[in-house]
Amino acid sequence: MNLFIGNLLKKIYNKFYDRSYFSQKVSYSQCGEDLIVDFLLTWILNIKVPTFMDIGAHHPHNFNNTYIFYKRGCRGVNIEPDPVLFDFIKKMRPEDININKGVGFKTGNETADFYLMSSKALNTFSREEAERISKNGNIQINEVKQIELININELMNRYFDKIELDFLSLDVEGLDFDILKSIDFGKYAPKVICVETIEFSEHRTILKQQATIDFLIAKGYFCYADTSINSIFVKQSLF
Fold first, then answer.
1. Which of 74, 136, 177, 197 is the most buried (most CB within 10 A)?
2. Are 67 and 60 spatial neighbours (Cβ–Cβ below 8 Å)?
3. Which H, E and C letters describe 83-107, residue by residue?
4. Of 137, 165, 138, 136, nearest to 152 (Cα)?
């Protein structure tokens, strides 16, 4: 057994019997990802007040991976390109830094077509993804807006140059891998990353995005947990 895996299992075993963690816990994520990340950061990595960046925040608390931290006084950065959803986030989470832009992986200022879907959880900058979703079933493209983009490394430099980023939540429907590949991991390497690793389907088929998983493993992460929809990665060097 690898040393870091042994250390991880030992920490989980020791904390499993601390019942105080498991009492009155409420999840705001799609599949309980926030509780998994909370346990990992708070109990395993001993980070009591984590920093976070939520790319594709979507909603201030519904299906949201960072609201659990905001509720207990942690503060971070939320990026949401949908103007309607952004206004709601700004109202409900005024102490966070909230940015009404998309996240790009190219340098320089640019704008891009943003596809507003009939199900807002599936909004995307990817034309290919929007058309694939609309052909798959009842979800359609409602509107296309031009939205300003900000480079991922510019965000990292602006907000996490002086402090480390503990948790990156990434869900941008179709462009997650491109954004991950563009991160300068030599300068900005989040301790924990939660990213969607399944292709959307209305027919209950499961097609994992193996390229994303392989890429993060090659960057020194390992898959700590998987909810089928999302995978949670942590830096191997922390163990």
1. 197
2. yes
3. HHHHHHHHHHCCCCEEECCEEECCC
4. 165
User: Domain of 73: which CATH number?
Assistant: 3.40.50.150
d(CA 191, CA 171) in angstroms, rounded, equals: 17
- pLDDT attached to residue 117: 93
Amino acid (1-letter code) at residue 9: L
pLDDT value at position 174? Answer: 75
Amino acid letter for position 46 = N
Number of structural domains, the chain?
A: 1
Q: Name the DSSP letter for residue 49.
A: S
Q: Domain of 200?
A: 3-101+152-238
Give the mean pLDDT per block of 10 residues along the chain (239 residues): 60 54 77 96 95 95 95 96 95 97 79 92 89 86 94 95 96 88 96 88 68 96 94 96
Element housing 170 (H / E)? strand 167-170
Amino acid at 30: Q
